[in-house]
Write a structure and sequence with these properties.
Rossmann fold; binds adenosine monophosphate; 7-stranded mixed beta sheet; two-stranded antiparallel sheet; alpha/beta; single chain
């Protein structure tokens, strides 16, 4: 399977989670063994030559791709979660959403000073979430080597919030 075929395995769900949003549903990709394998292999291909100490995945679909990439690269994985989910001592960053705000957390001891971090998520939309994740990693002394996404929604210009960072997106809509 190639990346063009992969694109066709992603399902558009209109008006989810609210009216006007076209949700990119990746469960249709994940259940297809060839598509899942192709997606992970192609994401891996884009980042395999980077210097990486640790993969950080964003809740929750970032866990699926982040852990697969980490396993294949032979690296560790650390989860970034919504407020209140991680059991040990955490550091947090609060960021603005379209309506209101959200808080994400990571374990305080997840990232050593100077550790080179690859951030992985399923989709880059407005970039607000990734921007907050970068802040959180840098707060702990980590160095962001790059951000890897399965999908980037180009028309939302998420890259503008991540200037100066290397972004690796596999599929563009
Ligand atoms: P953003 O902070 O706007 O870049 O949004 C990124 C996060 O929201 C990612 O973790 C995505 O999983 C999710 N997301 C945003 N927009 C969509 C969409 N149209 N379809 C699927 N997931 C989305």
């Amino acid at each position: 399977m190639n990346v063009e075929c992969l694109k066709k395995t992603i399902r558009d769900v209109p008006d989810f989670p609210k009216k006007g949003i076209i949700f990119k549903d990746i469960t249709t990709l994940l259940k297809d063994k060839d598509a899942f394998q192709c997606a992970v292999d192609a994401m891996l291909d884009q980042v395999k030559n980077l210097e990486i100490d640790l993969i950080v995945g964003i809740e929750s679909r970032g866990f699926i791709f982040g852990s697969a990439v980490a396993y294949k690269l032979g690296k560790g994985f650390s989860p970034i979660r919504k407020k209140g989910k991680l059991p040990a001592k955490t550091q947090a960053v609060t960021y603005s959403l379209e309506y209101g705000e959200d808080t994400i957390e990571i374990h305080e001891d997840a990232i050593g000073k100077g550790a080179k971090i690859l951030i992985v998520d399923d989709l880059l939309a407005t970039g607000g979430t990734s921007e907050a994740v970068v802040q959180l990693i840098e707060k702990l002394g980590g160095v962001v080597t790059g951000l890897s996404f399965l999908i980037e929604l180009d028309f939302l210009h998420g890259k503008d919030k991540l200037q100066g960072y290397d972004i690796y997106s596999l599929i563009h809509f």
